[in-house]
């Protein structure tokens, strides 16, 4: 709490921006979390007493919504199933200066919340809670491996990435939230959140945070192989949409290479005999080369379209005024760098 107070000192209630404390919203997506949600709300209210806590219930069949209301949270219902649909609704409906999103399963450390919010106050657009010191039962080896693999894939495609790309504990600036075009419907939303920041080259950071096991009686909604495959498909889709020239160039090169390999024996036979005895193969070579040229042309056209979309997203981002950095926040950055 002391770090948060230093980054955002109290100020009188006046209208000029930067003279009042930032409005902080804690966003909690939930599906059947009656065992944990009451404690999550209480812990985050203790760590961020001035924040509004919003619970978005995603068709829970238990008492999640009722418990959240009794705990004092603002509860909304999201009828479309899936975490991605919930995130889209949260970002659209909640108005604040700074946003903190956390899963409602009581696995993330609420004590790290002031540090995440303080880093946002230094001018960052997204801060990711990097999971560490976790129990083996909480963060299984298969999930660790899948996270690292997918994180490396995004790094190869977009040039830089995070250490824990799939963390469900994140802080966002208003600029980020109101410029984020959510498309994913499920747990692949974390991949989109990371790619959006990398695309616009936003200032981002990670803050280490403990990660524990779910409370006894609650059940994980993750399906290791299904969700991992879905995230991988999302990465391929984002590659096609955001790096179309590279994506279609790979297909064009493969078609051209296969066409040349198949054509070599035909050319040798033609040079020796003056005949082309295998017309189906010759037709296939020509078709593959034409297909390669078509793919290359499609990549060039879509690359131009993508640059236009990216410029529009950047203009939308710039149209939202940033939260003014406090002098204390800048000093804390310098102090942290000097310690490093």
TrEMBL record:
SUPFAM superfamilies: Nucleotide-diphospho-sugar transferases (SSF53448). This is Glycosyltransferase family 2 protein. Keywords: Membrane, Transmembrane, Transmembrane helix. Residues 26-144 form the Glycosyltransferase 2-like domain. The chain crosses the membrane at residues 245-267, 279-302. InterPro entries: Glyco_trans_2-like (IPR001173), Glycosyltransferase_2 (IPR050256), Nucleotide-diphossugar_trans (IPR029044).
